[in-house]
Write a structure and sequence with these properties.
The chain has 17 helices and 6 strands. With about 375 residues, the protein is α/β, with parallel strands linked by helices.
Amino acid sequence: MSDLLYIVDQSALADFCAGLRGAAWLALDTEFIREQTYYPQLCLIQVASADRVACIDPLALPSLEPLLDLLYDPAVTKVLHAAQQDLEIFHHLRGAVPTPVFDTQLAALALGQGNQIGYAALVQQLLGVELDKTHTRANWRHRPLAPEWLAYAADDVRYLRELYLQQQAALATRGWLEALAEDFAALAAPHRYRLQPQEIWRRVREHNRLHGVQRAVLRALAAWREERASTHDRPRRWILDDAVLLELARRMPKTPDELSRIRGLPATTAQRQGEALLARIAAARAEPPEQWPARISRPHLPPERAAEVDQMLALIAARADHYRIPSQSLADRWDVEKLLLGEDSPLRHGWRAAVVGQELLARLASGVNTQTIS
């Protein structure tokens, strides 16, 4: 591990970043904790180039600006695995996502190396290296960081660069680099990371069991919870549990007495926030029906077109088999139905379009029977 740098000094960070100027890509990972906060608490940043590996300590440094300037350089590709949570951290730091990115988990899906495969499993599969998982649940806020913790963290980028080079070559061989760039750009789209309280209700478990005005109430209450959680930097569940949100939306209490009968609602919350909750519920109930959130439903195809869907699915299965990709990773029946209805579908975008979506669209446009598979 002699190539590993542990950077806790501002001048060392500046020197390290200066030495990486002109790099075409950098492997990137973070260690963070968020069990007791709304926003992730950044504890460590790991960066690797072709010949350098560093663990950068944000808790010891007065400023990360030299590093952020480097990471936000659009000439540098940022290589990550399962990038979304890491990108969320950087969006919180700067209000934007560093681009462009390359996600080795997403590339693994396209290359048939695994659906949502973990980093350690992918390293084992492609590089034959078994990573130590001992420190997966380490408290990364603890200082000083033990040498074995730093070695564990460094491995998250040490092998990431090798994964990237292998996957990039494989994608180039298939001619999919440009297609997958669309998927990477979608992953880094700013709207994924902006606070959207009015849309957060869609993440509440079992929200589809609600009807009509109940969904409007859930939207209002989920937005209230999101606003409080983000303002006070507390986990959503500490404000209100999902099950309580659903019960409030189902029963829509009008009075403090009715509110107190909601199962699972803490008495302290009812006392301190009861007025705000009842006000949000009343306002949602007063909304006109045309403003209520619509239920997300599957597209509807006439029964006589079912055979057409089956033919498309057969073609998708054939292409998936050719590339040794699980057909479910390419598309499901709903994706095909949306394509036939002229709606947006994953088959219209990125690597899925390159593998089979463009072919399906061409056959539809020309009227070719999709049952003719070759």
